[in-house]
Amino acid sequence: MRTVLLSRSADRARRKTGFRCPVGGGREERCGREERSGRKGGSGRKSGGGRKGPGLGLGLLALLVAAGLLLAACETPEERPDPTIPEPDPFEEEFDDDHVEWWNERVFYQIFVRSFYDSSGDGVGDFAGMTEKLDYLEELGIGGIWLLPVNPSPSYHGYDVTDYYGFNPEYGSMEEFQTFLDEAEERDIKVLVDLVVNHSSWEHPWFEASQEPDSEYRDWYIWQDEPGDYLGPWGQPVWHENPHPDRDDHYLGIFWHGMPDLNYENPEVTEEMYDVAEYWLTEIGVDGFRLDAIKHLIKVDEQMENTPETIAWFEDFRDFYKDVDEEAFTVGEVWSSTREVVPYVERGAVDAAFEFDLADLYFGAAERGTNSRLHVSIERIQEAYPAGGYASFVRNHDMNRFISDLDGDLDRSRSAAALLLTGPGFPFVYYGEEIGMEGTKPDPDIRRPMQCDSDEPYAGFTDGEPWRELGPAWEERSVATMEGDPDSLLEHYRSLITLRNERPSLQYGRYDRVHTEDNRVAAFVRYTEEESSLVTINLSGDSISSPHLEMPGGPFDPGDTPELTGLHGTSGPADAGGAPEIPGTPEVDPESGGFAVTDGPDLEPYETAVYDLAGYTVGE
Description:
Elements: H1 12-17, E1 20-22, E2 28-30, H2 60-68, E3 108-111, H3 113-116, H4 127-132, H5 134-140, E4 144-147, H6 174-186, E5 190-195, H7 205-210, E6 223-224, E7 239-241, E8 250-252, H8 267-284, E9 288-291, H9 308-324, E10 329-332, H10 338-346, E11 352-354, H11 356-368, H12 374-384, E12 390-392, H13 402-405, H14 410-422, E13 426-430, H15 479-482, H16 489-502, H17 504-508, E14 510-513, E15 521-527, E16 532-538, E17 549-553, E18 563-569, E19 572-573, E20 587-588, E21 593-597, E22 608-614
Helix pairs in contact: 8-9, 11-12, 11-14, 14-16
């Protein structure tokens, strides 16, 4: 048995100064940290790429399943029941904005570094390329960025990590990453990195050492002599044969054999992940983490998701990182129904979580062109969470791009964007959706290179040959072809993000539906104590004339006189044409505090019109 020294040690100081570990072929690589100048004065590490993994040594069934499973470890779609949440009671309490955190006020942008912009001509996006595109993101109105994994990994996506303290050498150096962070900070753009806590790569030195039964790292993973007689949450094999040629025991890996699950019943694993988090917050200088696949962290017998032990672990983890940096932020991926996600936020296990049921609602309304099931479900989701506790999106890197599932229809895509950017939750935009990028699974095809310029080879993404071929319709859909065109999807995103950034009511205000007899119209009010915004969205391809708008319960007193001022319409913001006029005058219902507009705005197909609703007395 060869001796392997790894980054965990009882002597924490030894790891912080770095040390060597022998690897195959007598060659040596760094497994600890080298002393380097970090962004905040600490140490960092520049790492080389992954090396060849151990022999497969797996059964045919496991190989077939592995080929079909997601390689990104970011959850697999599943049947999700409707939220079983009580009916809300609108306006039962005054709005209280004490909960507002910096992330509630921002629109985030999700970037796959490999596909965003290549500055070197090797066909792979990189840190320097992201830095070059920060002006574009700033002009789009983006206030936060989530980066898919930037660690070394043997896979293109990076979700099987071989070094939690290193950087993928294809993306660039630590110095280039820190230049990116500094330039983002100059523009007041916060940066989150993906932290893959559930599992590592099977090429990680920890796992390679754990294959020996007497290794000090044996208990860092979940081993047993015989495989369990049960399958995983979506019917997949989860027990895999030891790749060591002289062993016949088995380890647990929920996603596939190349991603063995870490064992968080071992306190050494917890301590190590605490160290990882502290390193990225203090020595690299990121603003927080998107936490990957967290619902699977601690398994109890055959229960492999959402165990009480998992939530308790993340409660302690949050206490730890808040002690390190009280402004640090985590958003958790819990791909489950609302009722299963809420406890993570309610108990303080994460600052916020992604709202998958809400994403389904937004896409469904855009797909059907009607508001059926939209409003009551959104209100129930709002009531379920602590204020400001969930992130909104329409699709992410694990899903078909929603433009493709809308058959490439950019008009219906405008509806989905409008719901996302005016609705509750703080939004995440998946790179390229603002220009109508398409893509359907397999996964590499929903993560294709960004389409920067249709007049340039490879859409201006690279001067070389891109790592993946371009997506459909790239000749017509790019930043360059859409920029400055007020009718383009890009300018639709830009104008709505700009409006949201200017309106606290759209950032974190309460959501309450406005009733209309025309189910092609989604209408609602977002309000704080200081301001209120009325949003009307035509979800259909038809022109709609003067829809009746009514809010049965609301913030008004009998003596109030509501006033509506156009903020945004088909022509963009008010100074570019503004919202269509509302012919009718809002009338207050003295009994309920609600209001009604007999003749609402004339809405063009797929038009979003937003109004300032003034004249109420909430908070006075």
